[in-house]
Structures are given as structure tokens and as C-alpha cells.
Amino acid sequence: MNTYPKRWQALNFLIAGAFLSPLDYFIVNMALPSIKNALKASDHQLQMVIAIYGLTYAALVVCGGRLGDLYGRKRIFIIGLYTFLFSSLACAFSPTVTWLIIARLFQGIGASLLAPQVLASIKVLFSSKEQPKAVSLFSSVFGLASVIGQLLGGLLLSMHWGGFSWEMVFLVNVPITVICIVGIHFTMDTHHQEINSGIDLTGSLLLILALLMLICPLIFGQKYHWAWWIFCFLFAGIALLIGFLKYEAYLMKKARPVLIDPTLLKHRPFALSLLIIFFYNFTAGLFICYPYYLQQFLHQDSMQTGIAIVPYGIAFFLGPFMVSKIKLTPYRIIYIGLGLLMAGFIFSALVFYIQQKPSFITNITLFMAGLGHGTIMPVMMRTAISFTSKEKAGQASGLISIGIQIGSVTGGAIIGTFFFNMIKVIGFPEAFSLAIAMIGGFQMVGIWGNIKLRKYIHQL
């Protein structure tokens, strides 16, 4: 029986803090035209405003999880909140686009300290019976962020409060972070058993460099027309990642502190869970292609574009709450989620190919896809984290966050590159239809992974 009475109150503030990470991805996209005009930014600089945030977050999130293991999740979460607070203020009052890019880098650092503490805290604070509900609540913030980010961004940009325009998409973070700092201080358990080990600084550097070399080419490959040196960076990133894993195994043999326990990735159920998580996050390709299609081909404004994604976002938000009430085994729910994702995207592709514009039918098919996304996300998080001990919860949650981020970046790069290149060959509607059909097709890999995972889930 769990003896910590304020765990649910603490979870509310943990979730609110974690909500900032995806919110700032969606909401800033809406402000890019205003930022371009106000700061005289080039297209490349605007791309950096978006990319540097996700890049820093993905590269440091495992380090954030490890810091929580070592020094206490409450302490690291509060540090992350303060980092996010001051970097958001720096973003809002940036005099130049270069200043804004640097401030966004620090926002990414703050986000990397926030997200891994939530899953790890759920593992520690809640009983096994309570964890499904807690994880479902946490998962729902991603769907909520996709809706609120688009709509709130458009609303804030149109209101011009106090003479502010694009600055408001960063200033909206301030009250949320302040409330979370106060709330966590009074509700989260301060007890932490100190671990007498240091930080694996060499391993941290190797992992950060490896992820940078893997992610940067995916983000900027299209800009430089996939030049030969782009692939050199990719291969170097793979080599560094292998070197990092071998170095961590060496440290384990010497009984020295490690950043990631290599046995986590060698544990087949956990590795299969990461594979499924990686591929269902290819859904990020929708958020790259759909707004561009609506604005450039159908000439819709930012508010119309934001409203168009609402069916997907609402279903994404509702999915975690529905799945917590379904009395089925995890592997069956994973099949249902992947099936809805696949069917939703493929049916959407067919309808857009025929009608070429949003309609009541596309709202239904996108709702289906969003429901699949919201259904599978909490189950996969809960399943993956269940294969780890409490002592390794921070490392595991960091790896899950990396899987989400790299899946999103990779999916966005593959789907986006295909979409933009095919526009010139077959035209807008056909290119968009094929791109979102690809998102559905990639879920076959997840279904294969779930077949392999099924026998392990039966043992839980």
C-alpha cells in the first residue's frame, strides 16, 4: 500500500510541468511568420528556432533522467522549471533572432530535466494498480498540447495584448512554471536516498555527440540536398553510439558509475518497446505536412489550419482516459492502437486523394488516427517502464523520451522529405496523400514488434 498521501496532487503539477515541453513545440510553429517579420529572420534561422529546441531536448533527456536518479527527482524537476521559466522570458524579450535561438537552446535544456522525472516518479510514488491511471493522465498532455498549441498560438497572435505579438507564445509559459514551482514544493515527496556515485561525464559527452550527429542530418539533410557529408555525419553518429554502449559496458565491468545501464537495451522486452515507440512517433510527419498543405495549397490562414488538426488532437487527448478503463491485456490494446493509427492515416490518404480538402469524413479518419495515438502511448510507456527496477526508472524514462523524440525527428524528416520532393513530381494532393499513407504503413513495424513482445507481457 502506498503511504505517500499527496502523490495525486504532486502528479498534477508534474504533468503540468511536463505539458510545457510539447506545448512549446506546437505553439511556436504558429508564431514563425510573426517572428520572421519582427526579427528579420531568414528561413534557415526560423528552422533553427524550431530545431535547436527539439535537438537539445533529445540529446540531454537521458542525462536529465540520470540526474533525477542521483540527486532526487523533485530537486531536478524544480531546476528544470526555473530553467524553462528564465529561458522563456529570454525568448520573449529577444532583441535578435540569434538571441532567440540561444534562448531556445536553454528551453530545450529545461525540457530535458522535466519530462524524465514524471515517468520515473510515477514508477516510485504509485502502486502497480495506480500506475495505469497515472500514466494515462501523463500521456494525455501530448494530445492536449497538440490542440492547445495550435489554437492558443493563433489566438495569442491575434490579440496583441500590451503590444506583444509573437512574444506571447513564450510569455504564456511564465504563469504555468510559477504555479508548478510552488505546487511541487508543497506536494512532492522530498525523501530521497542518496546514491554514492558520480556522473559519467565521458559517457554523457559521447551520447550527446552521437545524438547530435544522428539528429542534425535528419533535420538539415533536405536543406543541403542530402550531400555526401550529411551521410558521413550519420555514420559517425552511429559509430559514436556503438562506442558509447561499449564504453558503458566497460564501466559496468569496472563497477564505476554509468549514464545508462547497457543491460536495459539488452533486455529484449524493453528494446522491443522502444522500437514500437520509435515508429508510432512517425506521426510527427502529419504536423509538418498538413499545415503546409493547408496554407500553401488551400491558402488557409493560421486559425483555419489550427482548427483542422483539432479532431486528431481531441482524440489523442481522449485516448489515454479511455484506455485506462479497458479491461484487456496490454498486447491487445497495442494492436488496437496500432490498427487505429494505420487505418486512420490510410483512410485519410484515400479521402484527401479524392476530395483534396478537409471534410467531415477526414475529421472522422483523423479522429481515428488520433485515438490510436492516444490509445497506444500510455500502454507503451507503462509496458516499457514495467521492465525496469525503481533504481533504473530515471534511465529508462530517459530512453523512452529519446525514443519519442528521435522517432518524431526521424519520421518528420522521412515523411517531410518525401512530401516536399514529390510535390514537384506528382502535385500537392497526391504527394500529401502518399505521405500520410506512409505514416500508416510504418506501423506494420510496430505490429511486428508487438507480436514479439506478446509472450513477455503474458508474464506480467
Please, could you describe this protein's structure?
The protein is mostly helical and 460 residues long. 82% of the residues lie in helices and 0% in strands. Keywords: Membrane, Transmembrane, Transmembrane helix. This is MFS transporter. It is found in: Membrane.
Largest sheet: none
Let me know the CATH homologous superfamily of the largest domain.
Answer: MFS general substrate transporter like domains
Q: Name the CATH architecture of the largest domain.
A: Up-down Bundle
Taken together, the total number of domains comes to 3
Weakly predicted, low-confidence segments: none
The N- and C-terminal alpha carbons lie at a distance of 19 Å
Report the radius of gyration as a whole number of Å: 21 Å
How many strand segments?
0
Number of helices, counting only DSSP H or I runs of 4 residues or more: 18
